[in-house]
Known about the structure:
Number of helices: 7
Number of domains: 1
Distance between the termini: 95 Å
Structural class: mainly alpha
Largest sheet: none
Strand content: under 5%
Amino acid sequence: MNSEPSVVELITGASLPVQLVLLTLLLASIGSWALIIHKARVYKRAVGGVREFERSFWAGGSLNEFYDRISREARAREGHEAIFEAGFREFQRLRQGEERRHEHVIGGVERAMRVAEHRQLDQLEEGVPFLATVGSVSPYVGLFGTVWGIMSAFMNLGAMQSATLAAVAPPIAEALIATAMGLFAAIPAVIAYNRYTQRVDWLAGRYENFVDEFLGLLQRQLGGK
């Protein structure tokens, strides 16, 4: 009685093009999972930073003291902190210089904060398009491997005098593994891409709201002087 071939045996017995397709999909899957885990940590830290900053900032107190406290911390600023630091630093520079007109001060602060905001969003979005690429391309790469494998199977069957199910099944099973591998690489990448895109949009909205609120706060302070 013949035993059924294992998945490993089917892969090792596949043609070279199919094996190359499987290797490509395996590397894509490993890369996407590494990025998924890394980005999960990045977004968790970013969301926590947003909530912590907003809680501290709107708790009251002097803007100068808040800025000094953040500036003294020996670590890289991210998210709201980076946006606030860029804006308030520009505010101090303009107020200490020759520029005294309120609209020019506010305009300079807004430009500085928008630049910092875009830098933060660029960092958050870094690598995410790779997930979209893996999710959209992997099924087609797997399908290519399947088509190639089936073509090879039928070409080999043509050289046989009698074609039986036992002769047809293993080559076709080898080919179908490529489709399964393509889906295995694509599905987590697509789910993660959609989830992370929503997270970036949420963070972008919070950054945008803070910039508008902070500019309004500065306008009220300047208008009271």
